[in-house]
Amino acid sequence: MKKPEKFIIILLVFLVFISSFAIVPVSAARYEAEAALLHALGIIDGWYTEPFDAKPGAKLQRQAAVVALVKLFGKKDEVHALTQSEVDGILSRYSDSHLIAPSARPYIAYAVKTVIQ
Length: 117
What we know:
Layout lengths: L2 H17 L12 H9 L21 H11 L3 H6 L2 H8 L13 H12 L1
């Protein structure tokens, strides 16, 4: 396995692990500038109505973390190149795939296809 793939797998496992805990920010505005930048870059677009919504006790959804990671690595074009039948086929082996938000399905499928295998 190549070093970048190992890094991505470790990063995904880490994000999945931390996303299972409640994230309670010290101050709601503490990371507002950074989140606004990520929103402007399209990394967290489509998941939040505001550039940053840090409510005390809010949890980062794992699917949102995967979408952000795929976008961060600049793979939006590859994700959009997947057909709906490819996405459905990749996710069909998971019994809880129906719980994935429609907008996140192609990103999750891409991550499964390229990283987890």
